Amino acid sequence: NSSETSHATVRLLSCSIMNVFQDAVCTLNTLQTNASALEQVKRERGHPQLQLQAMRGFLQRAGLKVDELDRLNIIHVTGTKGKGSTCAFTEQILRNYGFRTGFYSSPHLVQVRERIRINGQPIGKELFTKYFWQVYCRLEETKDAHGGSMPAYFRFLTILAFHIFLQEKVDLAVFEVGIGGAYDCTNIIRRPWVCGISSLGIDHTSILGDTIEKIAWQKGGIFKPGVPAFTVKQSDGPKMVLQERAEEIGCSLSVCPDLEEYQSEDSLRLGLAGHHQRSNASLALQLSHTWLQRHFLTGLAETEWPGRNQTLKHGPVTYFLDGAHTTRSMQACVHWFNEIAPQHERNAGGPVVRVLLFNATGERDCGAMLKLLVPCLFDFAVFCPNITEAIATCNADQQNFNVSVENMLTRCLDNQQSWRVLNGQEEKPEAELLIGGGLPLVAERHRDTLVFPCILSALQWISQGRDSVLSDPNKCVIPVKPSINAKAALLREAVNIHVLITGSLHLVGGALKHLDPALNS
Q: Which residues bind ATP (predicted)?
């Protein structure tokens, strides 16, 4: 019957997956003992730096780039005792915060899949098999061009872990070092977010050295310039070596406090038994805290909020948009503009024209806001109502029926008059401010004021055809009197045009409708 048939199909599929998985594991195991791998180990033993050079080559042959690993937001951990436990604590803490975690460790207890975990679970057989053959086939296809070389077992698994974590888009990856640190194949990681060193002792002396100080030097090799590092309490010898390594490489090194020093409402209970786990837990807390702190700071740095201190560069025209509409917010806007505009002007390589595009709505104190803008030394002050286009296709999202067009234009004319008065143009239209000897006290700037019927016409006049977004043939070009166009000679001749758009969020929104087409989709 159909039920038996479906069960049989499932069994066949399960057997098929198991067979392909076993093929992958058997192929992986050949990398443990093949002749080229043994020769590789012998060749590199006297030149440990060759290990990282070879690892970069294998990574490239597998289709990965070293700089791609930066996207994994890595926590890198080494040590003699407790590094695996520290990694397990760290991964669990950050997973509890809701992050999608990757965790690479060694050795495995039962199945090789245990070495590569996502969200705390060994990667499934199907995914392991899929990703294994992707990486293996790329390396196999390129081996003849590289003297028949294939990466040894641990190297291959490290490359596979990088590939899996990138493909599965983890938020962070915790990497446990295999042996040592400086020349371990995980140390091709260039920019971890934080590094940790658990308790040090004597182990792997044929590779790392026969004293704890030599071993500490190797372990400190995972430090990276500017990346914070933490260690548990060490004896004086290795502690001094780690401090010297941190200074040499250029990073901070902090010693973790005892677990008892952390403040907690309840007594701390660890999921891993044994008193020695307390120092590992403390190290994990420091690593997790530092990672979270950087994550939040990165979030702050990458936050975007259109129309608030926003910069849009369209070729020679740069727009500075801020929806400031109170005197206090305008003070902040002016401070921001006076900081950022000069940075752009220094790189312009020629004359820059500054333009103010302003409007305000409601009962705002336009005079007070405009007074704050005067010291910015604009060459042109342009005023327009919050109407995106003065034609029938005006965006319904931007229409405001609470105020008549006549009232809006009257407001703009009032603002133009206020600007002229604030700049002393009413009483002394052509006057220059002079000091003894006839020299200008301030570099005199051309100051003209104009009023346009809508945002699009204002932007088109300001940009003078030099903004390709506004020159879109689908946009209606609003005719302007020749006398108004004549005033734009300065805009056409300038190397760059800098436009501050402010006074109203509605004005900024209407401008963005034309300047950022993605917002209209």
A: 308, 322
